[in-house]
Amino acid sequence: MDIYVIRHGQTDANLSHELQGRRDIPLNEQGREQARRLRALLDERGILFDRVYSSPLGRAVETTRIVSGGSVPVVTDDRLLEMDYGPYEGMDLRKPAPEVVTFFSDFVHNPAPAGMEQLSSVTARAGRFVEDVARSSGERILVSTHAILMKGILEYLTPGSRGSYWSKFIGNCALYQCVWLDGAFSVPMEVADAERR
């Protein structure tokens, strides 16, 4: 089984350094182009999907439809939503609130500020989703989500990574291929947008 996990393409909120969270902000033209380039890369490698899942937010669904080529119906799943930033959604990340700076400086160990979803909730959602979809062998599954949830999925699939994905920057339309082999998942392919330019 191969699980391909992607982050949605760029939005105008990404460009303006806003904490998007669960606000339903659409892709911008650059985000659509990122998704088209990723689809072209997958076509070059002959990669087609048996099942396709997405966060229900429009930016993830549109990315999914472009990247999957529309060959398989997109199943939306609320467990793939981005972390709920509560009252901090929309905040300018160039001028963050002090409590958000403290949280993100070591968000694996620091509790989230009041009103924000706790990381333990995010990782539990990621784990439940993976357990539900990763039951069929021999399939290629595409999962389109958001940066923090994507990190949770990668951590869940590769416990030997020892937390390395939590500190990793994951750009728009980045792709990680997770392959089940010899009783464990590994990540043999990472594709950042810069590699597709």
Q: What's this model, at a glance?
A:
The chain has helices at residues 12-15, 29-44, 58-68, 98-105, 119-133, 147-157, and strands spanning 2-7, 51-54, 74-76, 140-145, 175-181, 184-191. By secondary structure, the chain is an alpha/beta fold.
Provide structural commentary:
Helices cover 33% and strands 17% of the residues. It is of the alpha/beta class. The chain has a six-stranded mixed beta sheet with strand order 3-2-4-1-5-6, sandwiched between helices. The chain is globular, with a radius of gyration of 16 Å. The protein is built from six helices and six strands, in the order βααβαβααβαββ. 37% of the residues are buried. The chain has one domain: 3-Layer(aba) Sandwich (Rossmann fold), CATH 3.40.50.1240.
What attributes characterize this protein structure?
197 residues, alpha/beta, Rossmann fold, six-stranded mixed sheet, 17% strand
Give the SSE layout.
Layout: E1 2-7, H1 12-15, H2 29-44, E2 51-54, H3 58-68, E3 74-76, H4 98-105, H5 119-133, E4 140-145, H6 147-157, E5 175-181, E6 184-191
Parallel strand pairs: 1-4, 2-3, 2-4
Antiparallel strand pairs: 1-5, 5-6
Helix pairs in contact: 2-3, 5-6
Q: Class by helix and strand content? A: alpha/beta
CATH architecture classification = 3-Layer(aba) Sandwich
Q: Overall 3D geometry?
A: globular
Per CATH, the class reads Alpha Beta
State which percent range the strand residues make up: 15-25%
- In CATH terms, what is the fold-level topology? Rossmann fold
What is the makeup of the main sheet?
Answer: 6 strands, mixed
Using DSSP, what is the number of strands? 6
Q: What fraction, in percent, of the residue positions are helical?
A: 25-40%
